[in-house]
Amino acid sequence: MSIEYLTLDEIGIKDNNNIWLEKVKINDINTEVKIDTGARLNVMSNKFYKKLKTEIKNSNVVIKVFGGAIIKSLGKVQVTVVNQSAQIIAIFEVVEYDGNPILGYMDCKRLNYISELNEIKKEVSTEKFIKNHLDVFTGIGCFPDKVKIKVKHGSVPIINSPRRVPIKLMEKLKELLKMLCYKKIIEKSKEPSEWQNNLVVIEKPDKSLRMCLDPRDLNKNIVREMVEIPTLDEVRNKLMNKKLYTLVDLKDGFYQCELEEGSKRYCAFSTPYGTYNFNRLPFGIACAPELFQQLTNKYFGDIQNVCIYIDDILVYGKTKEEHDEALKKVMDRARLLNIKFNPDKIQYQKNEIKYLGLKFSEKGVEPDEDRIKAILELKSPTNLKELQSVLGMVNYLRASIPNMADIVEPMRALLKKIVGGYGVIIVRGHLIH
Question: So which domain of life are we looking at (predicted)?
Fold first, then answer.
């Protein structure tokens, strides 16, 4: 007599706290099976077996279930199981219990559920990684260096009148300001500021509030930093033909950059509840990407097998060992510096990753399908600005389009004119073919 082990009342893989169920057809009967990748056999209830009207054969299998109880098989049946991707002949043990048929590991694999299992395992692995580095994935970080906003000599300060905030958003804005003050991202202005920027308040789909600075007048007077941001070709050469990738995103990136005291006065804004200024680098400031890239390069740029683009740090490796060593150094460095990553945006141990409009893997590099789709769905440009936008988008794909320079030359020749749909049609043709 052989003993098989099966968990009946605690299926191993769950999704949103529900048992993992899949729709199948067993001998022409539509049903849902429970997926138990820890089980070494398949099981169905006696009640379900009676619907099949098929022969049952003797079985000497004894099943030990979760909790230690023993169930004797009433017999075994051979059935056809069909799902959307496969059809198999499978053996099920028939037992007295209430519930859906249970599919064990081997037949999960034959019905192609194993690939889905691998994805779930990766999710579990990601959660475990975050849990092991929880201090790096919680709270608001802050780089050791303070950043300075430089304004052109002789610039005339501009005070913008505060914009009206819809009455229904007033209370939410009050709470948001209170929260940002608590986190020391902003503070109440201690004295009148020569520069005052507009505030933009947007209600997001989840009804929470997004508060943005509109520093368009300030931006005209800012001195931009000369910082090397990686080119697309440099990124391609680093990332193609690698076995493993992990992408981490600095949480609320710019808010991890503290402004030096003299720069805070440039980032003041008025609200119905008074005037505030930013203590951290606000989104929308023209020089913010360069200032941020400076800091990420300074503190993470010396680590091998790391690609840094603004607030994204992509770790890669030709081997798992090479990848894991670099990732450990990134985590240790972040912990030492009090830098925080976003747990919702991590892509952990991927064999293939989408980055900057391209898809990288061990096979090489190819265009991201989403980027191609976006270009194909573009409306034909009708003015100079729209044409420049089209050229900017297709530029990401230049390495994948033969004779790209010749193809876009007619569009470049039209840059100083108001154009119709000519240029994008040419590019679409080459993308399709």
Answer: Eukaryota
Query: According to the per-residue pLDDT averaged within each range, which of 135-144, 195-204, 384-393 is highest?
Result: 135-144
Question: If pLDDT is split at 50, 70 and 90, which confidence band does 181 have?
Answer: very high
Distances (CA, A) of 334 to 131, 141, 229, 256, 385: 15, 9, 21, 12, 40
Residues 317 and 361: beta-carbon distance below 8 Å: no
Cβ-based neighbour number of residue 149 at 10 Å: 25
Residues 222-236: what's their mean pLDDT?
A: 81
Task: Determine what percent of the chain falls in helix, strand and coil, rounding each to the nearest 5.
Answer: 35, 25, 40
The partner residues of 25 in beta bridges, in order of sequence, read: 30, 82
Say whether both 334 and 230 belong to one domain. Answer: yes
Q: pLDDT tier at 122 (50, 70, 90 boundaries)?
A: low
Is residue 340 in a domain?
yes
Q: What is the b/e burial string over 11-20, where b = at least 16 CB atoms within 10 angstroms of the residue's CB? A: bbbeeeeebb
H/E segment holding residue 203: strand 198-203
Q: What gap in Å lies between CA 139 and CA 135, rounded to an integer?
A: 8
> For 304-330, what is the mean pLDDT?
93
Residue 6 maps to a domain: no
Instruction: Sort strands 274-278 and 268-271 into parallel, antiparallel or unpaired.
Output: antiparallel
Q: What is the CATH number of the domain that holds 87?
A: 2.40.70.10
**356 & 375 share domain:** no
Helix (H) or strand (E) holding 160: none
| Cβ atoms of 163 and 199 closer than 8 Å | yes
Residues 387/378, Cβ–Cβ less than 8 Å: no
What percentage of residues in the chain have a pLDDT greater than 70? Answer: 86
Q: 150: alpha, beta or left, given left = phi > 0 and alpha = psi -120 to 50?
A: beta
